[in-house]
Amino acid sequence: LEIGATFSRFDDNWLTVLRNGMVEYAESIDGLTYQQEDASDDLAKQIDQVTNFVAQGVDAIIVNIVDTSAGAAITAAAGDTPLVFVNREPDNVNELPPTQAFVASNEIESGTLSAFEVCKNLRAEGKGNGARGYLMNGQLSNQAAVQRSKDVHDVIGMDMCNFMEIIDEAPANWSRDEAQDLMTNWMSSGEPFDFVLANNDEMAIGAIQAMKAAGMDMADVQVGGVDASQDALLVMAAGDYDVTVFQDSVGQGTGSIDAAIKLANGEKVDTKVYIPFVLVTPDNMNDFLDKN
Amino acid sequence: MADTSHGTGGLVFDKSKRSWPNELNIALALIIIIAIFEILGQVLPYMNGQSFLFDTRDRFDSVFNEARLKIIILQVAIIGIIAIGVTQVILTAGIDLSSGPLVAATAMIAMSFAQTELVNGNPNPKAVFGPWAMDLPVIIPVLAGLAFGAMIGAINGTFVAYFRIPPFIATLGMFLGCRGIALWWTSGNPVSFPTESYSFIGSGMMPVVWFLALAAIFHFILRYTVYGKHTYAIGSNEEAARMSGINVKRHKVMVYMIASMLAAFAGIVLSSKASTAQAGMGEFYELFAIAMAVIGGISLTGGRGSIIGTVLGAMVLGVIRSGFTYVKLDGSYQLMAMGSIIIAAVILDQYRQRNRA
Amino acid sequence: MADTSHGTGGLVFDKSKRSWPNELNIALALIIIIAIFEILGQVLPYMNGQSFLFDTRDRFDSVFNEARLKIIILQVAIIGIIAIGVTQVILTAGIDLSSGPLVAATAMIAMSFAQTELVNGNPNPKAVFGPWAMDLPVIIPVLAGLAFGAMIGAINGTFVAYFRIPPFIATLGMFLGCRGIALWWTSGNPVSFPTESYSFIGSGMMPVVWFLALAAIFHFILRYTVYGKHTYAIGSNEEAARMSGINVKRHKVMVYMIASMLAAFAGIVLSSKASTAQAGMGEFYELFAIAMAVIGGISLTGGRGSIIGTVLGAMVLGVIRSGFTYVKLDGSYQLMAMGSIIIAAVILDQYRQRNRA
Amino acid sequence: MSEEYVLETQDLTKHYGGVHALEGANFKMRKGEHVAIMGDNGAGKSTFVRQITGVEQRTRGKVWLYGEEVNFAGPLDAREAGIETVFQTLALADDLDVPDNLFLGREITKFDWLGPFRMLDYKAMREATIEGLNRTAVKIPNIRNSIRNMSGGQRQCVAIARTATFHSRLTIMDEPTAALGVQETAQVENIVRTLKEAGEPLILISHNMRQVFDLVDRIVVFRRGRMCADLDIKSGDYTGEDVVSYITGAKTGEEFMEHAL
Amino acid sequence: MSEEYVLETQDLTKHYGGVHALEGANFKMRKGEHVAIMGDNGAGKSTFVRQITGVEQRTRGKVWLYGEEVNFAGPLDAREAGIETVFQTLALADDLDVPDNLFLGREITKFDWLGPFRMLDYKAMREATIEGLNRTAVKIPNIRNSIRNMSGGQRQCVAIARTATFHSRLTIMDEPTAALGVQETAQVENIVRTLKEAGEPLILISHNMRQVFDLVDRIVVFRRGRMCADLDIKSGDYTGEDVVSYITGAKTGEEFMEHAL
Ligand SMILES: Nc1ncnc2c1ncn2[C@@H]1O[C@H](COP(=O)(O)OP(=O)(O)OP(=O)(O)O)[C@@H](O)[C@H]1O
Ligand SMILES: Nc1ncnc2c1ncn2[C@@H]1O[C@H](COP(=O)(O)OP(=O)(O)OP(=O)(O)O)[C@@H](O)[C@H]1O
Ligand SMILES: [Mg+2]
Ligand SMILES: [Mg+2]
Fold first, then answer.
1. C208 touches chain A (CB under 8 A)
2. Binding site membership of D44 for ligand 1 (Cβ less than 6 Å)
3. Would you call A73 an interface residue with chain B, using a CB distance cutoff of 8 Å?
4. What's the rounded Cα separation, in Å, for the pair B320 and B344?
5. Which partners does chain A have (≥3 C-beta pairs < 8 Å)?
6. Which residues pair with D15 in a beta bridge?
7. Has residue C243 got a pLDDT over 90?
8. Can you tell me which atom of ligand 2 is nearest the CA of D153?
9. What is the rounded average pLDDT for all residues in chain D?
10. Segment D93-107 mean pLDDT
11. Which residue in A91, A180, A240, B100 has a CA-CA distance of 20 to 30 Å to C49?
């Protein structure tokens, strides 16, 4: 049995956890050849990789799609070969042919969970009549980034959280280093602020590092991110980081391989499997320490 | 004894030793790379003697694995279209870094004039404009895209030719500018659900058809027209071209415009192929387009090379990519191996060229 | 009437009109950009008259907004270190595209020798090697990183000089190669939790210290040593340099090695600053390093420019970035504006240079 | 100004930064006249040519061609106005072959309605090239070889053939025979004589005294960026030695005394 | 082979693709001798020089320097073996100034233990440069200007000064006075005479018959890539016309008859 997988990018932290988990799981299954490719965020390349797999005659394909709005093109490229979408939900999820399925999380949850928790914490700290802060975006061309930022704005739009005000938002491209520089730039204006929301953990950590370097007390600032990476949990353990969101890589990884094998063998599978996000705070962080 | 049919007398000129065209070296490199994959297929134990190019399923109608042949060229066709334009820019001793982001920006713009009103009976969820811009004839998005490309190219060319900005900087500025336009157009949201006629542009093997047709056209233009001759002359010695009375500035603007229009067209084909347009599209395309040209023997100092070379350079990249999938090379090694093979191909080319002299 | 102190007689030579150093133009561009932001701050209604460079909080100890001054240079210091090396490569009429991925690969490698055994009392969850590689003296990761850089540089240089691969292709190959190495080293997992002494390398304003110190050293070397003179000579006319008896090949290998070691050092500083190393680090650094050099007046055809120019070019980029945050420019406009400003800075430079002649 | 002059300059001046390469040149030449410009290395001869042909923009001064004031923005303008020039730097495109270089900027074409994409008539250009080169007596084994691979003299002959192939209202040659062999020099001198017979005016820059005395009507001497003598050699009043003493500064023409250094 | 010869070549041949630029040259020169190489444009003179100095790799043949067989990998080797050359293309770095070019590849330095990072002694080089240039009589208003901005003759003088400043076991000059004015030519000829007095051997390539007869002992003529005459002009047996007839192919030296075209 031969499975080919393509991932939107190899150097994404969370996807790496997913990827490596899948390699491990695939090795544990007898007679399974598992091969993975890097689409380096290039949609056309990913479509070609799927076509290449088909030319190769693999038995099933797993796709972590670069762009969720290109579901139709990927579906078409696979033809009759069984295909499983993993992690990201393609826009044609309701029209998938019987040879295809998907195993993913609903991206709308992640940003919302994190922002709402920060909102509640600010209220609890008695800042309910006005709090100002910054929002760090991931790559603006990335849909997860766009979605997570939109979630933040939606949360702030709610009555309960409309005391929150965004002073400025700017991209730091998922990166800790750029987040440090961006945060330092913001702080150089001297404006006081109460929270920092970031589209992922790396940027949140970068912001925390910059604030600590400037001598700020992290108890005064609420910081929220997404991913629950190990680095993030350790920063949380040190008391600097307040809110993040966990996404289950093992569940998605094994789930997608199992579905691919079943499809290749002609068995029926559920076409949609949602794996939920989980909010992580200092209270429950110990449950997640060795998960991602 | 001297063959002087094209000379004015003088030394012995042995016509049989006429210079061996550069393109043959690259073709040779291509064949060697294919042979290596073929051999690897026989040698590697887990490949079960599968063949790279040939059909092992024992059919009557073809000895080749057609699916593989098609994908080899299909996957480089779009970047190849860009490379045709970049080749011309490089021939003038310039460089064009803006093509990757230009692909994205054009894709966004063209696609937003190519949307359908109804998707499976529901209103288009990604609609950019109101109903007036829905289900337009296909010519409109195409012209919009090409016009945008022409505009960017004109700006690039004007900066390079009239303001004497180094091409690297002028097009790096446009690189940032076009990425910005792509992001700003729909604030990062993808644009999807094109009309059927727009989808046709990039469907199936159409990208290959465009690529080869454009390559043929520009091969002819570069070789047999005044435009081509002046392009080479400028790259060879810009000062001499100017002193010989070529309107160097106007010509450069034209070259950059043509290059950007080709990149814009690549953006149209790409968005049609993917049925979506997204601001992050085309990342690193500019580098790979340049790489195709240089692997194909186009000299970055200008004046030397041909479109045939670029097409062969594109094929080299296509074969490498398919080959890696074929030998089941893991993604994390693919980059390393790709780097080595590109260098090896050029070494081979250099080596042959030197031995000839 | 002729001042012939440095000539051998002949025409009138009016010393007072000596050529105006290129670097002054860039400094001028820098000042103009700062002035524009300062004015924008006064003019834009939502800025409440905040100042860009000056302290509006009315303190005694400083009239400047020190935090801003620091971040302006801090945020370009790491790419600036790369730019010092790239400048030298460009002076020989070469180019180095591999520096971005090299930063990532070096960061991964160096960091994995710089890990601590215990993080908050727990064992390091990101440990790459066993306990033997924990809490090593800081010199070991630094040397490991520099050695790796030297190796990559030696390979780049060898390909360029001895195999005559065009620098664009040789270093593009290494670009892919280093990206591959970075991904392969820990199969994409980040490496974190460095020792305290390693963290010090990139802490606070240390990156700026490194950047300026290295810039000063290489400014001196390029201007006053044989190494520098030969670097310029090769870029100016490689054939002439060869005919004059310079060992061009050996020299080029040296230049590429120095450049890669500087990029490797940038990777060390970056990973120290971020306390983590990730395979995706340093994306586009090579382009920005080249841009700094070119904005600073280094000619891509080789032979002309200076490190001072590069430092000023870096400052231009730093001011632009801080300025955008300062005027709260929306992310999707930032790229467009950045592109325009870079081009404008170079136009200004070109304009002044031409008027001088 | 006056129509009787082919070329006239007034106060033509060029400074490069602090270097005063050309200073107040007042130059005149009549129809059909052949004039030589001589002078030391660095005297400003080529600078003078570059100002007239629009390769560079002058610091100040005026230029008239056939009585009409001209201000060329570039060499293209100059050529269109009828000035054909062999530059000292030759201005050849190294990667192109001989016919390409000969016809650079004025290719023989077919289907001209195609605008910039009109087609090249390679065959016609090749034939015209061989004819043109024969006039210079140079031997080139393979004219399809790129110019990069030509010897110094071969390159120079290509540049000369380029000028000699087209008719012009004024021909300028900057040291055309510097790199040429004995035979080729003789042939180029023949080309110059043919021009003289056809009544086409010529400015010849040369360091070769014999050649100058053989070919031209008048010698203008430059020294240190200034014109310092204007000698009608057909009158027979001047010998080679006289000219040398003007070049070296031992003598200065009367009308130029005021500027003497 | 024999130690009495400064330079000896046997069957030295260079083909560029199909172009046989140099074919079977057997060349010998004695100690202290000054030899001129003459020939039409494209006859192979510069090609001959490039093979001897290791600029290019020969197709076949052997070269001996002072009786020792040499096979230079590049011009650096040739210089280290004591050959100083003024190439026809001059080999100057356009962006560097005059002293930099003069000392390119053998800078005067301080703190030599610093290896490649040893420091340049700008002052010493500047002084030596002015001295070297004075020997060629060229006038350069500002030697700190980059070579790009020099006139044709100034460039050539820099290249000559570079060679003349250093002692050598064999000096080669490829058309050194082609672009030079009257005075500068005279000075360069003086430099050659000085070499003769010092007993330093020289190969001079020139198209100038007068110059050659004035300066050298022997003329070797190349035609169409082959040596076709070897004339001892000090014997007084040959006139300029004789040499021209060898160059044009009207005559061929007896010992070269077998190759005659
Ligand atoms: N672009 C430039 N910048 C600075 N100085 C220049 C420039 N071009 C020429 N010069 C200087 O101007 C002077 C005149 O140069 P020009 O080329 O006119 O001399 P020339 O008379 O043609 O000499 P030659 O006989 O050697 O060709 C020289 O001293 C030269 O160094
Ligand atoms: N790299 C090359 N490739 C092809 N042909 C070449 C190359 N170099 C020189 N040739 C040819 O070889 C022949 C000899 O050239 P060479 O430069 O030796 O001539 P030369 O005797 O020095 O002439 P000149 O007096 O004009 O300098 C010429 O026909 C030239 O075109
Ligand atoms: Mg001149
Ligand atoms: Mg020669």
1. no
2. yes
3. yes
4. 12
5. B, C
6. D20
7. no
8. 26
9. 88
10. 90
11. A180
List of chain D residues whose C-beta atoms are within 8 Å of the C-beta of residue B8: 130, 133-134, 138-140, 143
Of A284-288, B61-65, B303-307, highest mean pLDDT: B303-307
Q: Which residues in chain A (171-230) have CB-CB distances under 8 A to chain C?
A: 171, 173-177, 180-182, 184-190, 202, 205-206, 209, 213-214, 229-230
Domain ranges of chain E: 1-81+217-261, 86-166+185-198
The residue with tokens 């030695």 is: D241
Does B169 touch chain C if contact means CB atoms closer than 8 Å? Answer: yes
Alpha-carbon distances, residue C196 vs A230, C121, C137, C199, C281 (angstroms):
19, 15, 10, 5, 21
Q: What is the pLDDT of residues B40-49, one digit of tens each?
A: 888 887 777 6
Asked whether E44 lines ligand 2 (CB < 6 A), one says yes
**How far, in Å, CA of E164 to CA of E182, rounded?**
19
Cα distance between residue E209 and residue E240, in whole Å: 7
Cross-strand pairs, E12: E25
Q: What fold, for E1-81+217-261? A: Rossmann fold (3.40.50)
D88, E54, E182, E205 from D210: Cα distances, Å: 20, 37, 12, 21
Torsion-angle region of residue B121: left (phi > 0), alpha (psi -120 to 50) or beta? left
Gap between the Cα atoms of A198 and A225, Å rounded: 5
Q: Which residues in chain E are contacts of C225 at CB distance < 8 A?
A: 114, 116-120
DSSP E strands, chain B: 118-119, 122-123, 191-192, 276-277
Which one of B71, B99, B103, B268 makes the best mutation probe of the A interface by having the most chain A beta carbons within 10 Å? Answer: B71
What are the backbone dihedrals phi and psi of residue D162, each rounded to the nearest 5 degrees, phi first? -60, -45
Bridge pairing between strands A195-198 and A164-171: unpaired
What number is the ipTM of this complex? Answer: 0.87
pTM of the model: 0.89
D171 band by pLDDT with thresholds 50, 70 and 90: very high
Share of chain D above pLDDT 90, in %: 41
Amino acid B75 reads Q
pLDDT tens-digit readout, B219-244: 999 999 999 999 999 999 998 999 88
**Most ligand 2 atoms within 8 A of CB, residue of E13, E14, E45 to mutate:** E45
What's the CA gap between B98 and D131, in Å, rounded? 46
Residue of B nearest to A54 (CA): B67
Helix (H) or strand (E) holding A37: strand A33-38
Q: Where are the domains of chain B?
A: 63-356
Beta-carbon contacts of C353 under 8 Å, excluding residues fewer than 6 positions away, are C22, C25
Q: Give the Cα separation of E31 and E66 in Å (integer).
A: 9
Written as one letter, the residue type at A169 is: E
Q: Among all residues of chain B, which has the CA nearest to that of E224?
A: B11
Q: How many CA atoms lie within 13 A of D247 on its CB side?
A: 25
Chains that touch C (3 or more CB pairs under 8 A): A, B, D, E
Q: H helices within chain E, ranges in order?
A: 45-52, 75-80, 98-102, 122-136, 152-164, 182-197, 209-215, 240-248
Asked if E19 and B19 come within 8 Å (Cβ–Cβ), the reply is no
CA A7 – CA A50 distance, rounded (Å): 11
**Per CATH, which fold does B63-356 belong to?**
ABC transporter involved in vitamin B12 uptake, BtuC (1.10.3470)
Cα–Cα dist C202/C270, whole Å:
7
* Residue pair A245/A113 in contact by the 8 Å Cβ criterion: yes
DSSP assignment letter at E104 = T
Question: Could you tell me the pLDDT band of residue B5, with boundaries at 50, 70 and 90?
Answer: very low
Query: Is B332 part of the contact surface with chain C (CB cutoff 8 Å)?
Result: yes
Closest C-alpha among D216, D158, D211, D159 to residue D182: D211
